[in-house]
Amino acid sequence: MAFHGNIGQFQNPELLVEVVKELNKRGETFHCIAIGSGSKELVIKKSEVENLEFRGRLNNEELAKVIRTCHVGLSFRTDDEISARSIPVRVSEYIGVGIPTVLTPKSEGGELLDSYQVGKAFDNDEVSAICDFIQQLKYNQDLYQFYKNNAIRIRSNFSREAGAELFVRKMKQCLNVEETVKHSSM
Length: 186
Known about the structure:
This is Glycosyltransferase. GO terms for molecular function: transferase activity. It comes from Phnomibacter ginsenosidimutans. Keywords: Transferase. By secondary structure, the chain is α/β, with parallel strands linked by helices. It has one domain (2-158): Glycogen Phosphorylase B (Rossmann fold, 3-Layer(aba) Sandwich). It is built from nine helices and six strands. It has a six-stranded parallel beta sheet with strand order 3-2-1-4-5-6, with helices on both faces. β5, α6 and β6 (119-121) form a beta-alpha-beta unit.
């Protein structure tokens, strides 16, 4: 499993540690890699939890190489309005490499996961349900392939190129609206 990105104020590394501890308690064989840096990275560094490896900050090429080897992407964020209204970039990156995503809290990002059926969103207090879902992905290959295939099917929509094209289209629309307003007020 992968947990990566800015490990700062809106991230929930405490939940990551709880999930890894619970999976260990259940006797699961797994490896979780945390990649990134930020004001909350010490939560992971100091946890000394079995099966949780902290790699720190990696360059984009190394990051992509590591994430491509993972089977599940994790995005755990705090309970606040910013997280509830966000679609974390890491979700796009997990979709891009074709792996199911586990997200907290339930949010616009979770609605995206549900609508495309590429992962699942949970509340931050649902440690047991998160672990149940991870175990389902591990032991039910049909379910895992379902989420993986859906991610692969839509991943081109979540590439950096697609994001840049959308940005350019929206900017052109804004400029056209501004130009129309300018001419109509003369």
